[in-house]
Structure formats: C-alpha cells, structure tokens
Design brief:
This protein folds into 2 domains: about 190 residues, Glycogen Phosphorylase B (Rossmann fold, 3-Layer(aba) Sandwich), CATH 3.40.50; about 160 residues, Glycogen Phosphorylase B (Rossmann fold). The protein contains 17 helices and 14 strands. The strands form 2 sheets. Strands 3-2-1-4-5-6-7 form a 7-stranded parallel sheet, with helices on both faces. A 7-stranded parallel sheet has the order 10-11-9-8-12-13-14, with helices on both faces. Strand 1, helix 1 and strand 2 form a beta-alpha-beta unit. Helix 1 packs across helix 7, helix 7 crosses helix 13 and helix 10 runs parallel beside helix 16. The protein is globular and about 65 Å long. The chain starts with 7 loop residues before the first strand and ends with a helix. The structure holds uridine-diphosphate-N-acetylglucosamine and uridine-5'-diphosphate. Uridine-diphosphate-N-acetylglucosamine binds next to helix 1, helix 5 and helix 11.
Length: about 375
Amino acid sequence: MDNPDKPLIYLIVGARPNFMKAAPLIRALEERAPEIKSLLVHTGQHYDYEMSKAFFEDLDMPDPDIYLGVGSGTHAEQTAKIMISLEKEIFDNRPDLIVVFGDVNSTLAASVVASKLMVPVAHVEAGLRSFDRTMPEEINRIVTDILSDLLFTTERDAIENLRREGIPDEKIHFTGNVMIDTLLTFADKARKSDITERLGLSDRNYAVLTLHRPSNVDVPEVFDGILEALAEVSKNIPVVFPVHPRTKKRLAEFGFLDKFSSAFKTPPAERGILLIDPVKYTEFLALEMKSLFVLTDSGGIQEETTFLGVPCLTLRNNTERPVTLEVGTNILVGTDPHRIIEESAKILRGEGKKGAIPELWDGKASHRIAKIIKTKMEEQK
Ligand code: UD1
Ligand code: UDP
C-alpha cells in the first residue's frame, strides 16, 4: 500500500506538445524520486486518437490516472471547464505540487486553480516570450509564470524575460529542454520508421510543412498566401503536410481543397503538397530528420529542427524561442509568399542555414528538473 505521507504531485497534460514534454519527466521522477507519488492528469483538450492516445502508445507513457475529458470550445469555455473539473480533483486529493508544461490553455487553467488552492506550481518551459499578445499562448505564458513557484527554463533569454517581470532568481532554474530528452530517447525508433518509404519520399529530397496558428490558418488571406507559396515550392520538391485538425477544418471551410486541388496530392507522389493526417511522434521525428527542410509555425518543431541541424523556415513574424535563431537553424520568414518561395529556393540551391546545439539541450533536462522537485518536496515536509 502507498504510504499516505508520500508527497503527491500532479503532472498536467492536455494538448499534443505536452505529451513529449511530460514523458521524460515521468520516467526521471520514477528513477530519481521513487518516494514521490505522481499522478498524470489529462485535461482532454486534445482528444482525437492521432492528437492524444497515439503519443501515449508511441512514447511508452502510462495511461492518465485522471482524465477530465473537457474537449474543444472557445478559450473561456475550454479554460473554465478545465478549471471546474480540476478544482474538484485538487480539492479532494490535495497534491503537494502540480507540474504544468508549455503554454496551452490546460497550462493556464491548471496554474490558476492550483494557486488559488495554495498548491505550489512548477512550470516546465517557463519564461519564453514572443512579445505578441495577439497570440493566445503569450497570455498563457505570462499568467502561468507569475503564478509559478518553480520555473524551469530551456534557454538563457527566458531567464532574462522572467527577471524583467520581477520573478526572483531563486525561483528560476535553467534546466535545459525536455523535448530534446524525448528526441534523444526516441531517435533510434524514428530512424527505423518506414514512413518515408510509405509516402514515396527519398532522404533529403522533400520538405515538411506544419501549420496550426490561428493567425495563419484562421485568416483566409494569410492561409491563401501561404498555400500559394507552397504550391510554387512544391513544383520543385514534394512537401509533406500532416494536417492539424484546426487546419483541416479551415481548408474545407475556406474552399481551399478545391482552389489548390492541382497542388494537393495523395501520397505517394513526386511533386506537390502531400496531405496526410497528423502522425505519431516517432514518425514525425523521422520526417524531420530525413527532410531537406521544414516550414512551420509550431513552437516545438523550431526546437527539434535546430537540434537536428535541419533548416527551418518559420512562417511567423516572431518567435518565443530566440535561441533557435541565434544559435540554431531557424529563420523567421513571416507569411509573405515571395519571401517563402525565395528562402525555400536558397535551401534548394544548397544555401540552407547551419547552426549549433543550444546550451543544456543534452537529454538530461528532466533529470535536473526531477532533482529540484525532489528537494522542494523534502523542504515542504
Ligand atoms: C492548441 C494550443 C496551441 C498548441 C496546439 C498544439 C491553446 C490556446 N492552443 O491549439 O498552443 O500549439 O494546441 O497542437 O491551448 N480539434 C479536433 N480534435 C482534437 C483537438 C482539436 O478536432 O483532438 C479541433 C477542434 O475543432 C478545435 C480545434 O481543433 O476547436 C482547435 O483545438 P484547440 O485545442 O482549441 O487549439 P489548437 O489549435 O489545437
Ligand atoms: N508532431 C507530431 N506529429 C505531427 C506534427 C507534430 O508528433 O503530425 C510533434 C512534433 O514533433 C513536436 C510537437 O508535435 O514534438 C509539436 O507540437 P505542435 O506543433 O502541435 O505544438 P506547438 O509546439 O506549436 O505548441
């Protein structure tokens, strides 16, 4: 039987990018701090098989201990539903700490609920700022960080951002990037994946595209311009496009499936934009590793491509991950179709950006975090 005096922590996940961040910490806590009982709470923000369960299987994660099943909604609806369900869980079980990841609505909702019930909050991936409050994630980051007791950062710029916002140094821990822990753990499995063969792609002879930011896919003119550019790029190199559910809805709603029907292809195909469903982590990692370059508006993918040394064109005007620009392979190209075509052409000519691996992106971030959590639990006794 569990010792009732064992410290209890909740790890809160909800959306796709949370799963690869939580997976290594679950393992590190088991190894380094077996005296802590940790429960995995899934809010249900993402719920399709390929946006959720596929990652639990692929990353050998335990099933969630608590599933809140909130689903989709407006920001207020989704955040409120998570808060109501989670408040009850926290009230009943009184965890000693909650750990939240990244910048999604589940992260914000959990931090607010826990703080008001005086449960300390640990934030993995703290301090990132795009300085763009039209981005819903920026609000989530600011609120989560101000409420957190332990702030784990992935890069030095994040430390400066937190200091500027008045967060005391003793709360900030530069621990590195847990996404890279997962990448290193699963790199071999990814290398063995046959996804490129199945899609008819050959190594370094295709590009990968992902899009899901509301500023890109919810605005018809912007989305149209990006697709115009990609239709042009894909005359020279196939572009594989795993389509996020938000983006899938907009493609249909804006009539783009018809408008770009000559560019959109079903794999295998030698040219064109190859539309596929979202793929599991090790398959996506395989696609990134073997590609010539990546075009994306994702946060995590900017980091993975930097680590892999694959050129990344970020289809945004800003990034909360400046180390990928300063040290890595990332370039901000915005959404101007001419610029997207021009930067892609440079890579096709062999002039892709080269980079190095940022500090502490070494596969050990989750162990550093587990150690600090262990100390915190001992102090709280
Ligand atoms: C969310 C996060 C974003 C993160 C992204 C990762 C917020 C505010 N946004 O954006 O930061 O980068 O996840 O992928 O938290 N849908 C489905 N099936 C699902 C999930 C969503 O069909 O399993 C559809 C629904 O129509 C939903 C829409 O996608 O309304 C958007 O989902 P939501 O979680 O609100 O935001 P994302 O765009 O996924
Ligand atoms: N990813 C995946 N399958 C896909 C697309 C992305 O496994 O079809 C992974 C990707 O490797 C990265 C994470 O999802 O680890 C990034 O999540 P997403 O782009 O949804 O969110 P963001 O990082 O922008 O918050």
